[in-house]
């Protein structure tokens, strides 16, 4: 439809994308072959058929397993480039991508190999598409505080190449407070701070992310809507929410996109954005997420313009660059 074409054409930034979650089954098989690794699926179709989840943990188990094919610097470069090619086709002009170093260093892949590969892909994408990008180092919250501190230590020589730290993986049972001291240290290193909160976890986890992690941006935030005072605060503080509609659907955070909280978020004056999270696993890149929202008929052209502008306003680009984009 017309609205589909309109939303697809909007210039946008992507602020919630796990690069390991952009590993398509075809590329997983190709990297497995290149690295001489056996994967427990016979075909791309068999693998895709396994992508049926009823909660976050179902997905995480298969996502960490998939990342095992990533071994060499070129694997990380090729992964990033494949994502940027797709993003550029969706009119993404800037992307702030998450990576999970512990998933790799715990398998014996050096931190520096991951960094060099991702940075090579980012540089090549900027040359190829003019698509700029930044890196956000995520700590796995199911691991302990010591492991997060050790990862932050590995990041020290690379601090100028990182925009922020983030917090992801299994939310419930791993509240933000567990990482308050790590985030304090990251802030002292000059890094911005973001955290997944309120995806499956309660509104109190969102409040902890604000008060104890001092976040600059909130990833997901769906369950904040259960608490009116918290919603008012997020609006007042102009906190950016990186919302992921197709992810929410696939992980059963919402029952149906017709009842997705995006409408309520915009009505509450929240600075919400549209993002793809783990597109290879959830069935769509950023324009698929925009079109899925358009199909509900509950958002107007003006709403989509707001969402696309919010993605630049909520980015970690400098003010002059943001002004050129919006
Ligand atoms: N890691 C990758 N995607 C994630 C998500 N949606 N929530 C938590 N951790 C993740
Ligand atoms: Zn995520």
Automatic annotation (TrEMBL):
Binding site for substrate: 278
InterPro entries assigned to the protein according to its UniProt record, in alphabetical order: A_deaminase_dom, ADE, Ado/ade_deaminase, Metal_Hydrolase
GO molecular function: hydrolase activity
Catalytic class of the enzyme: hydrolase
Pfam families noted in UniProt: A_deaminase
Keyword match Hydrolase: yes
The Adenosine deaminase domain, residue ranges: 11-325
CC cofactor: Zn(2+)
EC number(s) given by UniProt: 3.5.4.2
Site feature (Important for catalytic activity) residues: 220
Cofactor: how and how many bound: Binds 1 zinc ion per subunit.
Catalytic reactions of this protein: adenine + H2O + H(+) = hypoxanthine + NH4(+)
Key words of the record: Hydrolase, Metal-binding, Nucleotide metabolism, Zinc
Zinc listed as a keyword: yes
Chain sites annotated for binding Zn(2+): 16, 18, 196, 277
Residues at the active site: 199 (proton donor)
UniProt xrefs under HAMAP family: Adenine_deaminase (MF_01962)
PANTHER family attached to this UniProt entry: ADENINE DEAMINASE
Family statement: Belongs to the metallo-dependent hydrolases superfamily. Adenosine and AMP deaminases family. Adenine deaminase type 2 subfamily.
Record-linked NCBIfam families: aden_deam, PRK09358.1-6
Task of the protein: Catalyzes the hydrolytic deamination of adenine to hypoxanthine. Plays an important role in the purine salvage pathway and in nitrogen catabolism.
Name of the protein described by the UniProt record: Adenine deaminase
